[in-house]
Structures are given as C-alpha cells and as structure tokens.
Amino acid sequence: xxxxxxxxxMTYKLIFIAVTIGFNIWVGLILKKINISLGLLIFSLFIIxxxxxxxxxxxxxxxxxxxxxxxxxxxxxxxxxxxxxxxMDDTIFSKLQYQTIKLANILTEKNKRIENDRNEIKSLISDxxx
Length: 130
What we know:
By secondary structure, the chain is an all-alpha fold. It has helices at about 1-30, 35-75, 90-130. Helices cover about 85% and strands about 0% of the residues. The relative contact order is 0.05.
C-alpha cells in the first residue's frame, strides 16, 4: 500500500509541475511580456517548493506521532502507566493514552488475580498432599 501511495503521490506532483509549467508557457506566449512571465514563473516555483517543504514537515510530524504511539504501546507491553501525551489536552492522543493506561491497569489486575489463584491452588495441593 505504501508503494501505491508513493507512486500516486509522485504522479500527482509531476502532473502539478507539468500543468504549472504549461500554464507559465501559455501565459508567456499570450501576454508576450517578459516581466509578467518571469514574475509568474518565480511565483510558481515558490508554490511548488512550498508544497515539497510542507510534505517534508508533515512526514516529520507523522513520524514523531508514530514514535510516541510506539512508546505508548511499549507501556502496555511493559505494564507501566507512563504518560506519553499531555493529559491536559483534549486530543485523540490523550484519549488513546487514557484508554491504554486503563487497559494496562486491567491487564495488571488480571495478572495479579491469576498469580493469586495459582498460589492458592499450590497451597491447596500442598495441604491435600500432607
């Protein structure tokens, strides 16, 4: 799926760049004014570069979020109640973290109950054996 998205994303970028270049050429041929054509070309290059910069920033932002989510899932695996996202914010991440901590608490309680049951069974078997 990632390959398909990357390929589609690159296709959209190439189409956008081709349309922008075509539009610049068309404006240059119609107006026949170098100042306006050059200004439009510079503006178009600025917009295209901003699109690429925005994509890089968004990718970095998403990587940071996935790292935080990975850390949060690690807290479930380690059965810890560590806070990864701010609990003061009312975001989807703070809600997900609350549910993760709640799940970790449930799993911890179940593990304690299982351990107590095991110890009780061992004690009963020991009493029966003697």
